[in-house]
Amino acid sequence: MSFTVTNQVASPANIGESVTINLNQTDTAARMASIAVGNKVTIGSSSLVGYVTWVDKYGTQFTAAPKNNSVNLASSSTPNQLAPAETITIG
Fold it and tell me: Where are the domains positioned within the chain?
């Protein structure tokens, strides 16, 4: 089962490094419990793929690293940055 969440805060997206995805209260309440380390993530605007590497089960964020260490998880409109309001598919 896959679902989408929306990033709320810009995050640096350097090549080969994890990005931090910050969720709003609605996504946190509805989806945070379903997010687990190892889940596949796809950045909506750029179709870049990665995997969840850490989940703050008591907070509103998680991190994801790119599947391929030679790319990043940036939004297509903001090179080297995961933009606010970016849609992320999990699963």
Answer: 3-90
Residue 78: closest CA among 4, 8, 10: 10
Task: With 0.90 as the threshold, say if the pTM is over it.
Answer: yes
Q: What CATH number belongs to 3-90?
A: 2.40.33
- Residues 6, 9: Cα–Cα separation, whole Å: 10
In 3D space, the residue among 88, 33, 32, 34 whose CA is nearest the CA of residue 64 turns out to be: 88
> By the 8 A CB rule, do 74 and 18 touch?
no
pLDDT in tens, 25-35: 999 999 999 99
Report the 10 Å Cβ neighbour count for 79.
10
